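quick one before i forget lol
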Amino acid sequence: MHDQTIWLAPKAISFTAVCAECADEHGFFAAHVEGRLELDRLHGSATCARGHAIRVERANHEPIGVLSALSA
């Protein structure tokens, strides 16, 4: 059994991903899962067509590290 997590970008609301359990059992073409996570939510869940549970997490809203702007 796989511990599956889909990480979404801070501004993303929809996703299409591969269910690792289905990919192992039935091959890649039978393995996709689609869903939504509204912008006001940080966590959610999805279930593939065969019933495998997948966590959905929104990535950190704050940038990690140092950002710098290049001047022209």
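fyi The chain has a mean pLDDT of 85.
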